[in-house]
Write a structure and sequence with these properties.
- The structure is a homodimer of 279-residue chains.
- Helices cover 43% and strands 9% of the residues of chain A.
- The first copy, chain A, is built from 9 helices and 5 strands.
- In chain A, strands 3-5-4 form a 3-stranded antiparallel sheet. Chain A has a two-stranded antiparallel ribbon with strand order 1-2.
- In chain A, α3 packs across α4 and α6 packs antiparallel against α7.
- The first copy, chain A, is globular and about 65 Å long.
- Chains A and B meet through α6, α7 and α8 of A and α6, α7 and α8 of B.
Chain lengths: 279, 279
């Protein structure tokens, strides 16, 4: 598809188009663990091919979407909305940037890797089964999601963390509720995921304000969103509730270095990409 | 309330009504573990008082309901529907017997006690929170439940195990989906519960027909429904997937004695009461 578009728009030579391509791919994200590894891989592949064939400013997120639905969102930095579109061939089901990465630099992400082994139910087949068998998904798609997307875009524009956090947590829970309403049910969260959810609610309650929000994609691993000023405190809290002997290891804690009140904890990655659930 | 009704209907002497009552209560069900222990206790208390005061054939399930909502269902044997009623004071929120215990004697129940410790979220407060914060519960109450109750009553009347099993499993999952859509979420199922759910689906699939259905009330413990002819086979299967050294103990396996292909397994109770989720 990228070759076809390059041919149509004459963005590169016929000689280049005739060349065969050798793809070597490597990904440092746990694969199929619900951390959007396939999205990052397909986005990278499509972006690299588009660069090669000179498709600089053209819309290519619809091509990325064919590899992995959420890959279309990963084509842009910052906050991105995946629009469902109305055309039957899906050509207008593309990603639109809501705000660039510079818009809300204060917003940080901690990823707590609960389990990096492959998930039992692939996201795409899980979603297909939900659409076929869940009764609640109809109400979610028609009533809940449009309202939430509208409120979420506003929260991002206003950098309103409280509102952002509430919608993020509620929508994560509702997505997993739909998975459970699927028949047979798809279950991505485990006991550790639920322990994290409980702890985050307890922590925010004790602090007297919402300092951190959780969200879970199609896997047990938590993505926590939080303003920069609370990173130290939240890391110290996580370290306290999930103590580990291995925390000095470079494998245990990854990503941007953070100065902490106490010893640092758990695989951390600063990853300012909006992962709001869409389907 | 029972004294008041006895007074109105003159079913006993004034002398008896003037006596003080000493209540001594004992319950052999695990308490607050999501196994309807409070329902059994309140139903017993109300029934015993009604007997004492001579209220033989009067409707008293509305009184039992005040102690524990589901206690109104436990006033009758067999299959019982808890009608929500329309009056504000709840006087018509009563239990109605759909079929007596003699109707479907072939239907057995195995209860797998995953955890008999007290649950973190009491059912009543959990339900109140769901009504206040879940968006999906509106759709469940208005669209899903009325249709399912209608189909379930028909399945019971027809002794249609396939239909009964499908509605039971789907409704259990949807009830827990609503709990997860509550904010903060209420989570009653744990990893073992989900393992049981997976195994039941796998078992039915491998057997080529639905031989057993699961349902979970507000706790992690599984109630399995199955026709009598499959009890041996299902017990052998459970024994295989959850092997245990302790199975010779009288504490491990309780209830009606079952002859089995292999050694017997897990706390078993023949408990032919309809536990369909209602809210």
């Amino acid at each position: 598809m990228i070759k076809k578009r390059a041919l149509e728009s004459e963005t590169c030579s016929q000689e280049l188009l005739d060349c065969k391509i050798l793809v070597e791919s490597e990904n440092n994200f746990p694969t199929a663990a619900g951390l959007a590894s396939s999205a990052s891989g397909y986005a990278c592949l499509v972006f690299a091919l588009a660069q090669l064939y000179g498709l600089k400013d053209q819309e290519i997120s619809d091509i990325a979407r064919l590899g992995s639905g959420s890959a279309c969102r990963s084509m842009y930095g910052g906050f991105v909305q995946w629009q469902k579109g109305i055309q039957l061939d899906g050509r207008d089901s593309i990603a639109v940037q809501i705000a660039p990465e510079s818009h809300w630099q204060d917003l940080h992400v901690l990823i707590l890797v609960v389990n990096d082994s492959k998930k039992k139910v692939a996201s795409t087949s899980g979603m297909e089964k939900s659409v076929l068998t869940s009764e609640l998904i109809k109400y979610r798609v028609e009533k809940c999601v449009p309202h939430r997307i509208h409120s979420m875009i506003q929260a991002i524009r206003d950098r309103d963390f409280n509102k952002f956090a509430e919608i993020t947590m509620k929508d994560s829970n509702q997505f997993h509720a739909i998975c459970l309403d699927t028949f047979p049910p798809c279950v991505y969260l485990n006991d550790i995921s639920h322990t994290i959810i409980n702890y985050i609610h307890e922590f925010n309650k004790n602090e007297g304000e919402t300092k951190v929000a959780y969200t879970f994609d199609a896997g047990p691993n938590a993505c926590l969103y939080l303003p920069e000023k609370y990173v130290k405190r939240v890391l110290a809290f996580i370290n306290h509730v999930f103590p580990n002997d291995n925390q000095e290891s470079s494998e245990y804690l990854r990503g941007q270095h953070v100065e902490m009140d106490e010893v640092s904890v758990i695989f951390i990655l600063i990853y300012p990409i909006f992962m709001f659930f869409f389907f």
